[in-house]
Amino acid sequence: METGSSIGDSSFGFALASGGAIALLAAALSLADPEKRRQQQAASVGGNEMEAVRNYFNTAGFDRWRRIYGDTDDVNNVQLDIRKGHAETVEKVLTILKKESLEGVTVCDAGCGTGSLTVPMMLEGAIVTASDISSAMVSEAEKNAAEALKGLGSSKPVQLPVFEASDLESLKGKYHTVACIDVLIHYPKEKVAGMIAHLASLADQRVILSFAPETPFLALLKRIGELFPGPSKATRAYLHTEADIEAALNAAGWTVRNRDMTATKFYYSRLLEAVPAGTK
């Protein structure tokens, strides 16, 4: 999915631009009913929330996020800001990964989206397995990887990634590194610890996660953004505290080695790199 830890759209951006808008909108929060809207979205695909997410990223969401992660000019200022923020997070992940050679290193890119992390890892010689809940996203990522390989004048061995349409729960295998970037925003608090444990079980040496951090300020922005859902907004967005994510990693036998944060006007992503407990 790789939707980005973004909060808001163009309407939200307009609201924030006015000094008194937050106070006025905060007063109206109790009148909003985003949960009812979410239930309606899930009901449209049989009541399953993950199916609602899958449907979104195969339809309106696919078009929206393909443009955001692409290089076209067909984006508004908020989407452009999200594009820049996500690109910054990807660069930070690559900086971590490239501290050692990626050549021949097996990596699972869980929730690969359009391939913004998959493709550069491939070009560094990593053996990548890339998956996404959306078959449309997977097809776009595969196309982007194939295009990147065209005319590649490098002596470094490069292997086309293995692509599959799969939700995180269904991922299998064993990898040196598992990366899950800007995907946990779709997992509620009661499920995220189990998901992190599952992802960690697939990794031998390293787990890299990014998530939308839960703070009072960002919680308020998220709540206001729900007042302006728009036809192409994500079905649901969950914020997570760094303490909860780290506790889940610790419980799975991992310890956080590196931390980073990307924050723009409309994009917020906390990045953690974890290694097996006891690793020097």
Automatic annotation (TrEMBL):
Keyword 4Fe-4S: no
Pfam families listed in its UniProt record: Methyltransf_31, Mg-por_mtran_C
Single Gene Ontology MF annotation: magnesium protoporphyrin IX methyltransferase activity
Entry-linked SUPFAM superfamilies: S-adenosyl-L-methionine-dependent methyltransferases
Domain Magnesium-protoporphyrin IX methyltransferase C-terminal: 180-275
Any one of the GO BP annotations: chlorophyll biosynthetic process
InterPro entries: Methyltranfer_dom, Mg_prot_MeTrfase, Mg_prot_MeTrfase_C, SAM-dependent_MTases_sf
Keywords (A to Z) from UniProt: Membrane, Transmembrane, Transmembrane helix
Gene3D superfamilies named in the record: Vaccinia Virus protein VP39
Domain of life of the organism encoding this protein: Eukaryota
Spans through the membrane: 12-32
Domain Methyltransferase: 103-148
NCBIfam families, per database record: BchM-ChlM
Name the UniProt record assigns to this protein: Magnesium protoporphyrin IX methyltransferase
Organism, as annotated: Ceratopteris richardii (Triangle waterfern)
